[in-house]
Structures are given as structure tokens and as C-alpha cells.
Amino acid sequence: MSYSDFTVELLKEKFGIQLIENTVLFPDPRPSPVPELLPELLRRYVPLATMMNTEKARSELIISPVLVEFKLKSKKKISLFSGAEFNVDPKEGLNGRCDYIISKSEEQLALSAPVIVIAEAKNDNIIGGIPQCMAGMIAAMRFNILKKNGIAAVYGIVTTGTLWRFLKLENSNTGYVDTMEYHIQNIDKIISILDEITGR
Hints:
By secondary structure, the chain is α/β, with parallel strands linked by helices. The protein has one domain: Alpha-Beta Complex (tt1808, chain A). The chain has helices at residues 8-15, 38-52, 55-74, 126-146, 187-198; strands at residues 18-23, 79-85, 97-103, 114-120, 153-159, 163-170, 174-183.
């Protein structure tokens, strides 16, 4: 079993997760400058990615540029991992690859202090990607506790590339699903929320 095998029902059964679905997680994100190159990259890449319409194209041409440019512009102590093995508790099914992880540590050679888990939505189905992302967030929360990182909440993102939906996990068993979806055309809001989550 791995992260992608989870359903909402299984999350509730195995981990006692309570999902709260009627919350706007970021009602008023503080404005944050968009990385200088990003609007031009998206202007060039998004039409191609949507015409190709594969998960790989959306990952390479939309999701990766957003995350890489965010990391490079942030001048923060964060690191970015793509396709990383994240085997926290295989007996509980908390193992496998995470599409992307952002960590509150500048160490790039080894993952520590994960704060955001990002799952690519399969078949453009954001709702279907929520259980996979939440399972990765549970693993991140457990990882942080084991490492005594003291991170109070772990965030998640389920994205098709063009649409971004944010999640939050607190106290190991309370999961919030943002009622809002953010389109890539509102990249300023997406960057502002990423800035708020990483806390710098």
C-alpha cells in the first residue's frame, strides 16, 4: 500500500482523520511579489501543457516552474524535492513517492522538516487527489514529530497545474480542505499563499 491507495474512508478508519470542508484557509493572503521570470514562463508553457493534456506535461511545464521559481526567489531556508521516496511508516501504508515536498530547511541533500506535500491530480480530478495528499501530510506530520521539528501544521496542495487546492493538517487528525480553488492565472495569490505557509 502507498499514498495513492488511500481513500477518504480509509483515512478516517486508520487514522481517525476528521475532514473539515467548509473553511477558506487563506481569506486574505498578504501580497507577495511574483518571481520575475515566472509570468513569462507560464505565458509560454501553459498553453502547450494544456494542449498536450498529460499529467507529465502539466508537471514539467506548469507545476515544476512555479515551485522552482518560488524556491529560487524566496531567499528563504527552504528546500524542494520532486518524486522523493518518503517511507515513514510502511506498516500503516505511509510509504511511496511524493510528487513534490517543500521543507523548512535549506538542506537539499536529505529531506528534513517537511511543511508542504504536493500531489498531482490524476485525470484532472482534484477531489480524487485529496486522500493521497492527506496521507502524505499525515506522514509528514509523523516525520516531524519523530525528528522533533516542532512544526504545528503541515499543508498540502492538490493541483492539476492550472488549478491549485490547499489543505491543512493540525493535531495529527484534523484535516482542512480549502473551499477555494486558485487558477494559475492568479499566480500572485498562489505565491502569496506559499509565502504564508513557509512563514517568511
